[in-house]
Design a protein that fits this description.
By secondary structure, the chain is α/β, with parallel strands linked by helices. The chain has 2 domains: about 5-195, Glutaredoxin; about 200-485, Metallo-dependent phosphatases (Purple Acid Phosphatase, chain A, domain 2, 4-Layer Sandwich), CATH 3.60.21.10. The chain has helices spanning about 5-15, 20-25, 30-40, 45-50, 55-60, 65-70, 75-90, 105-110, 115-120, 145-150, 175-185, 215-230, 255-270, 280-285, 300-305, 335-350, 385-390, 400-405; strands at about 90-95, 125-130, 140, 160-165, 165-170, 200-205, 240-245, 275-280, 285, 290, 310, 315-320, 355-360, 410-415, 420-425, 430-435, 440-445, 445-460, 465-475, 480-485. Strands 3, 6, 7, 8, 17, 18, 19 and 20 form an 8-stranded mixed sheet that branches. Strands 11-12-13-14-16-15 form a 6-stranded mixed sheet, with helices on one face. Helix 1 packs across helix 3 (about 30-40). It is globular, with a radius of gyration of 25 Å. The two termini are about 25 Å apart.
């Protein structure tokens, strides 16, 4: 566990009111030992935590209620924990968040012991990280709910995350004068009147491979909506939220599933006041391995078809929706030159196209995909047979499509299909894959993860800044993971 994981484990332990168990907070007994050392370094000494040995920890991981945990402590130990928790919850909490670079002078102070001594008081508790963020390892395991609010503003770091109860605010800190103003507002109980909101940021949510219509995926939809309900309020922006769905909306094309998809998209639009764009996946057009486009004009597919080009004027973005399912059977995909020629004609009709950022979305993957480190590789993926199986899912004209994308200077490509999130920069473009939004493909031990991507866009420079990959365990046996990639 890195230092930010330890900070979040501590915050969850003290401030999470839900019955959160040790196996949901820590990465095994080793994680507990690391947390204990971290607390000791900050003079946070709780006898109950100090005296947990390996056998006790194993018992805690098997607990199914908070009572099964507390009964292992002596009355004095339990009372000490309760007193400490109540004391901390009555204070303003400041989590000091440094950025990436010591060339910003304020970062030296923000990572020092001195800032904790300077700002702590009877009304204020301060914790900080003694190291800068590592751009190559922006992975956060089990982030505390208020900490996630600050994560979505990571481009504004350094700053302070300040919270008390359910109220929280993140505010950037660039000078000691900024700190003085923050402490003045805390002293006068006006800190939560701050609502820092950049006039330049938009958020896009990439969903993929929902496979609505199957019983298992409908349970996944419930988990997805719960996750979105927690995430969307943190995406603060003056601009409308955009959903981009990169295929396999339904498990197979029929009327029942069509209505399920229609209901889901209406929910996204109405509940989150959002715009929704989508393209088709192989499961949206293929029945028993055969592409129904080749045999009939399906009313189901006619319902789903929409424009090839969509313009977001606020962001000055042109979204190019490429159908990779028109040709090819099994799970293979193909775009075809005829479709690209048709898109060329539409692009040629757009005035001042150089003023726009071009984004392409399709279902099939352009390049090979790997799993994030914490996910197990399936046995068949390690063998030659895995390569054969993967070839049945490929985009057969991927090289031709890459050349076309480069010709049009398209810098961002979004896709799904493999049920695994992935972020890469190849051939002069960022390629972002979304996993299964209803939980299929990403597994580890007993956990089954749904995942989706949050993309943060900067209007000033007409570019994306960050891609947040969200993993939520549908089985609730593991904590949320957020992996951040920089563009």
């Amino acid at each position: 566990m890195n230092e930010y994981d330890l900070i979040n484990a501590y915050l969850n332990l003290i401030f999470d009111s839900s019955p959160t168990y040790f196996n949901r907070l820590l990465d095994g007994y080793r994680g507990l030992c690391q947390l204990r050392k971290w607390m000791q370094e900050r003079n946070i000494i709780l006898d109950a935590i100090e005296e947990i040995n390996f056998d006790m920890f194993i018992d805690f991981t098997k607990a199914r209620s908070i009572d099964q945990i507390t009964e292992r402590f002596t009355p004095e130990q339990y009372q000490q924990i309760k007193d400490y928790v109540l004391q901390q919850r009555d204070k303003y909490q400041i989590v000091v968040l440094a950025s990436f670079d010591y060339s910003e002078p304020i970062n030296t102070y923000l990572t020092s012991l001195q800032i904790v001594d300077d700002l702590s008081s009877e009304r204020v508790s301060v914790i900080n990280c003694h190291r800068l963020l590592n751009k190559d390892d922006l992975s956060f395991y089990g982030p505390f709910k208020h900490f996630v609010t600050a994560l979505y503003q990571i481009d504004r770091w350094p700053g302070f995350l300040i919270f008390k109860g359910d109220q929280c605010v993140f505010t950037p800190v660039y000078t000691t004068k900024d700190i003085e103003e923050i402490m003045f507002k805390i002293e006068h109980d006006t800190i939560f009147s701050i609502r820092y909101l950049s006039p330049y940021d938009s958020f896009f949510v990439q969903l993929s491979d929902l496979h609505l219509g199957s019983k298992k995926k409908n349970l996944g939809r419930i988990a997805l909506e719960k996750s979105l309900d927690e995430t969307i309020p943190m995406l603060k922006s003056y601009y409308q939220l955009k959903f981009l769905i990169t295929g396999d909306l339904m498990n197979s094309p029929n009327r029942k599933n069509m209505y399920e998809v229609d209901d889901f998209m209406k929910m996204l639009k109405n509940k989150y006041k959002s715009d929704v764009s989508f393209i088709l996946g192989n499961h949206d057009v293929i029945v028993h391995g055969l592409n129904i486009f080749k045999r009939q004009k399906s009313k189901v597919i006619a319902f789903l078809l929409s424009e090839k080009i969509k313009v977001f004027e606020d962001e000055k973005i042109i979204l190019i929706k490429i159908d990779s399912t028109g040709e090819g059977n099994l799970a293979r995909g193909k775009v075809g030159q005829k479709q690209l020629d048709a898109i060329d004609e539409e692009l040629a009709a757009i005035e001042d196209i150089n003023k726009y950022t071009l984004i392409a979305m399709l279902h099939h993957h352009l390049f090979p995909i790997t799993r994030d480190d914490f996910l197990k590789q399936r046995w068949r993926e390690k063998l030659f047979v895995g390569k054969i199986i993967d070839s049945t899912k490929a985009l057969v004209d991927s090289r031709e499509l890459v050349k076309w994308l480069r010709k049009h200077n398209i810098q961002y490509v979004l896709h799904g299909h493999k049920h695994l999130p992935f972020f890469t920069f190849q051939e002069g473009m960022y390629v972002i894959a979304a996993g299964s939004a209803c939980g299929s493909g990403a597994k580890e031990f007993k956990s089954r993860y749904l995942s989706y991507n949050i993309l943060k866009y900067d209007h000033r420079y007409k570019r994306f800044k960050y891609c947040f990959i969200i993993y939520d365990d549908i089985t609730l046996q593991d904590r949320q993971r957020i992996i951040i990639n920089l563009f």
